[in-house]
Amino acid sequence: MALQGTFPLLPLDELVQTCVGFGCSIAHDDLARPTPARTQAIYEWWMERLLGLRAEDVRRAADAQLDQLDYADIYRDAMYIGVFQIAFQQLTQPSGLGDFTLRDLTHPTSKRIVQVLSAIVNFYFFQEEQGDRVFRPLEDEFEKLVQEEGVLIEENEQLREKIAAEREARARNAEIMKQDEPNERARVEALQQKREQSLETIKAREALRADIQALRQRRHEVGQDVSRLELGISELRSQIVSSPDKLRSRIDEMHDMLQREMERLKETEVKERQTTNKINALAQYSIELHACIRLLDDWQNDVHKLREAELRLGEHQDHLRALEAEQVELENRIQLLERRITNGRDELVRIKDKMERKKDSARSRRKALEDAHAENLRRKERLDMEAAEKNAQAAEVEQQIRGMHASLQSELEKGEKAFKRIKDQVTLYSIRLNKALDSVNELNSLAPEF
Q1: CATH number for the domain including 108?
Q2: Which of 7, 148, 223, 334 has its CA 20 to 30 A from that of 171?
Q3: What's in the keyword line of the UniProt record (predicted)?
Q4: Are 148 and 34 in contact (CB under 8 A)?
Q5: Does some domain include residue 32?
């Protein structure tokens, strides 16, 4: 094979067999004697095969450009050829053929089309050989996606377990609060009652303290009266010698007064004992009241704890709702990743199968091409001899065609001269006819009137 640039040029028959093996509808004459229409059809097939661009897509792009021009029909074919040439360069440039021009479409030659197709075929084989290099990163990415899928599934399970535990705790707390709600109301009502009773007890203690203070004041006054009586008795004892009768009456009065004071003192002592008993009872009640107050404080703390628990429960509920929303988002993300992984698996399997088929086909084609190459060399020698004979025959035919062309050209010149003479005669006859018509018109205008 002769080398051209960075790719080998395939022999004509080998190139035809290779293209037919790929599925391209091509014949030997399409490469030996190419025509613009057939060459463009072959290039369209390869562009659709390797680039995924169809002729209809190129036609739509060309029509879109024609909308900006006046008299679009005049430029329609030229615009399509130009757009097709730009699109086809996306295939020829990566293939190592950077000089593809419009002339390759409008005036194709056998040498040029063989060069273009050889570049495309060699690039196609190179692309097939690079399949493993492309396939390996895809497999690594697939493994990475599988690992990410496992991590996401594990995180999803943990979140589900956490959400289930939160729901169970929420249900237990709700049940406990529902069961304890009547007791809590009763405790709150009892607390209010105890507070009212404690206020009343405090008021009673203040009243008792006032009574005790009054009794102490009264006792002090009674003591002062007793002291005054003792002083009076002392005075009476000093006066007993001077006035016995008067003293006796005075003693009787003092005795009566003393009896009354003693009775009042006894009543005061009784009241004091009663007040002391009341004070002791109030002290005991105060102790019990303090115990109740401590119990109420404990209940109040329990109420605060329950309220804090309600607040924490609300926070947990908000957190649970956030976790549920996050779970929904994660589930959607997991579903999206599962779809991507499934699509990636299918795509990898499809690519792998396609690569295997293409490798097997390429190996068999390469083997067939290598086997056919030797045969083609032998055929080439025979065809060169036949081509020499055909060239000699073609030279003879060309000489005959040139003779026929010369005779035809002479006949054409004679016909042109005869046509010119006829044209001159017709022109002269037309001039004479016009003059005759003018004479007739003049005679008609000069005719006598009757």
Answers
A1: 1.10.418.60
A2: 334
A3: Cell cycle, Cell division, Centromere, Chromosome, Coiled coil, Kinetochore, Mitosis, Nucleus
A4: no
A5: yes
Tokens encoding 449: 């009137």
How far is 103 from 105, CA to CA, in rounded Å? 5
- Do 172 and 122 belong together in one domain? no
Residue 101 near residue 84, CB atoms below 8 Å: no
* Residue 3 phi, psi dihedral angles, 5° rounding: -95, 140
Residue 254 · residue 229 · CB < 8 Å:
yes
Q: With the CA atoms of 211, 213, 214 and 219 taken in that order, what torsion angle do they form, in degrees rounded to the nearest 10? A: 120
Give the SS3 label for residue 100.
Answer: coil
DSSP 277-316: HHHHHHHHHHHHHHHHHHHHHHHHHHHHHHHHHHHHHHHH
- Nearest alpha carbon to residue 215 among 274, 286, 282: 274
d(CA 112, CA 93): 15
What number of residues does the chain have? Answer: 450
Amino acid at the residue 434:
N
376's CB contacts (< 8 A; 6+ apart) are: 11, 13, 14
- Angle in degrees, CA 205, 206, 209, rounded to 5: 85
Beta bridge partners of 336: none
The helix or strand, by DSSP H or E, that contains position 59, with its residue range, turns out to be helix 55-66
pLDDT per residue as tens, the chain (450 positions): 333 445 678 888 888 888 888 888 888 888 889 998 899 899 899 988 888 888 888 888 888 877 777 676 777 788 888 888 888 888 888 888 888 888 888 889 999 999 898 888 888 777 766 666 666 676 677 777 778 877 888 887 888 888 888 888 878 877 877 787 787 777 778 777 877 877 787 787 787 778 778 777 877 787 777 777 777 667 666 655 555 666 567 667 777 777 787 787 778 778 777 777 777 777 777 777 777 777 767 777 777 777 777 777 777 777 777 777 877 777 777 777 777 777 767 776 777 777 777 667 667 766 766 676 677 678 778 877 887 888 788 788 878 888 887 877 887 788 778 778 887 877 887 787 777 777 777 777 765 444
CB contact at 8 A, 296 and 195: yes
Its domain, for residue 36, covers 1-129
Please give the Cα distance from 397 to 389 (Å, whole number): 12
Residue pair 369/14 in contact (Cβ under 8 Å)? The answer is: yes
Q: Look at residue 212 and give its three-state secondary structure.
A: helix
- Domain tally for the chain? 2
Is residue 353 included in any domain, yes or no?
no
Reduce the DSSP state of residue 108 to 3 states and report it.
Answer: coil
Last residue of a domain, one of 343, 372, 405: 343
Cα 119 from Cα 96, distance rounded (Å): 7
